[in-house]
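We modelled the chain as a single entity of 140 amino acids. Its sequence is:
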Amino acid sequence: MQIGATTAELTQSLGRSPTPRELAESIGCTVEEIVEGIESSNAYSTLSLDASDDSDDGAASMLDAIGVDDHNLEHVEIRESIKPLLDRLAPREKKILLLRFFKNMTQSQIADEIGVSQMHVSRLLNRTLDQLRASLEESG
């Protein structure tokens, strides 16, 4: 604030913009402090979120650049709760869940992959999911 007012006064009296040294002498501080003050005042600017970005491709506003709600955030707690439960599963059950839900394989494809019948994969998958649900309800 003081730099701006002093700059205006000295500009008026000198007929030109004052040097940082002249500002420092007038205010009673160091040249470095004047330079820092000028730099910090130049870093501050406000802009309406509705203001356009002055690009040629349309009237996009700053508001358009702000992120949107991530609907997957509500599932973070569930995923984090499931991790330790998955660590307790037997390797075969883990593999079945991985193939089914992360590699989107059908029960028949999983059966071929691990060498059992599709019906057995179905039973294992149901049993494993029931165990996970029960463990989640106990811990919740």
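As a brief sanity check on the tokenised model: The chain has two domains: 1-45, 72-139. The mean pLDDT is 85.
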